[in-house]
Amino acid sequence: MRVLLDANILFSASARGSPTSVVLAAILRHGVAVITTHVCEEARRNLAAQRASYLGECARLCALMELTTAFYTGTLPSVPDEDKPVLAGAIGARCTHLWTSDRRHFGSWYGRTVHGVRMVSSVQMANELIKLGWRP
C-alpha cells in the first residue's frame, strides 16, 4: 500500500493522538506514506496560520514519509486546478491511494480509481486498513 496524503490529512495528523494520526501510524507500519513538496508546504502554511504549536509534529511526520517529485503529465479527471498537483503526484509516484478529506473537490471521486490511484476519505482509508488486518 502506497498512500499519498493530501495537505488536509497531514494537517489533521499533526495533532498527536487524533484519529487521523492513528490511521497514519498504521499506514507507516503496513505500507508507505508519500507526500509531495506541494502538500508539505500547504500543510505547513495552514498550520502556521491556525495551529503553530503543531508545526514540530508536522516536521516529524514529514521526515517519516517518502517525498516524491514524480508528477504525472497526462490527462487528469475534472478536479480543480489547485488539486491537480496532488493527484498528479499520486499517479506519478505510483501510489495505490490518495487520502484526502477534501470532500468538496474529491468527494465525487471517493472510492473511484483513476490511473491506478484509488481516492479515499479518512473512513475509507481506515476501512481499507481494517481489511488488511489492522485493528485500531
Task: Offer a quick outline of the entry.
The protein is α/β, with parallel strands linked by helices. Helices cover 49% and strands 15% of the residues.
Overall pLDDT score: 91
Please tally the β strands and state the result.
6
Examine the coordinates and then state which fold CATH places here, giving the name of the CATH topology.
Rossmann fold
**What order do the helices and strands follow?**
EHHEHHEHEHEEH
Distance between the termini: 18 Å
CATH class: Alpha Beta
Strand residues, percent? 15-25%
Radius of gyration over C-alpha positions, nearest whole angstrom: 14 Å
Structural shape = globular
Q: Unreliable stretches, pLDDT < 50, 5 or more residues?
A: none
The CATH homology group name? 5'-nuclease
Structural class: alpha/beta
Q: Give the number of domains.
A: 1
What CATH architecture would you give? 3-Layer(aba) Sandwich
Count of DSSP-assigned helices: 7
* Main sheet: strand order: 3-2-1-4-6-5
Major β-sheet annotation: 6 strands, mixed
Helix percentage range? 40-55%
What can you tell me about this protein's structure?
There is one protein chain. By secondary structure, the protein is of the alpha/beta class. The protein has a single domain (2-131), classed as Rossmann fold. The protein contains seven helices and six strands. It has a six-stranded mixed β-sheet, with helices on both faces. A hairpin with a 2-residue loop joins strand 5 and strand 6 (117-120). The longest helix has 14 residues, at 37-50. The mean pLDDT is 91.
